[in-house]
Amino acid sequence: MAGNETHPIHGQGSLSDRELQIVELVAAGLTNQEISEKLAISKRTVDNHISNILTKTATGNRVALVRWALQWGKVCIDEVNCCVLPEQRENQET
């Protein structure tokens, strides 16, 4: 996937692949500093991404963001609220 590809979200703009990646890391419990280290980007860049994500998803904080991500199927935490992704289905059929 291209780095600038976007994914539509309910009633708002769209999240880029990088923003979705950051949502997953937030849902995994990482701090902004830990996210910056994992992705090799500055903490300020992570802060900006988080701010943009909160605006796009109309969530006010990280907890509301994780709830939004679970509700709309953007993240899977310990196989809770998970669906089988197409690529996983293909692997299971072989």
Gist of the model:
Helices cover 55% and strands 6% of the residues.
Summarize the main sheet. 2 strands, antiparallel
The first-level CATH class is given as Mainly Alpha
Task: Assign the structural class, choosing from mainly alpha, mainly beta, alpha/beta, alpha+beta, or little secondary structure.
Answer: mainly alpha
Strand content: 5-15%
What does this structure look like?
The chain has 94 residues and is mainly α. The chain has a single domain (11-93), classed as Winged helix-like DNA-binding domain superfamily/Winged helix DNA-binding domain (Arc Repressor Mutant, subunit A, Orthogonal Bundle), CATH 1.10.10. It is 55% helix and 6% strand. It is built from 5 helices and 2 strands. It has helices spanning 17-27, 32-39, 43-57, 62-71, 86-93, and strands spanning 6-8, 14-16. A two-stranded antiparallel sheet has the order 1-2. Helix 1 (17-27) crosses helix 3 (43-57) and helix 2 crosses helix 3 (43-57). The chain is globular, with a radius of gyration of 14 Å. The relative contact order is 0.14.
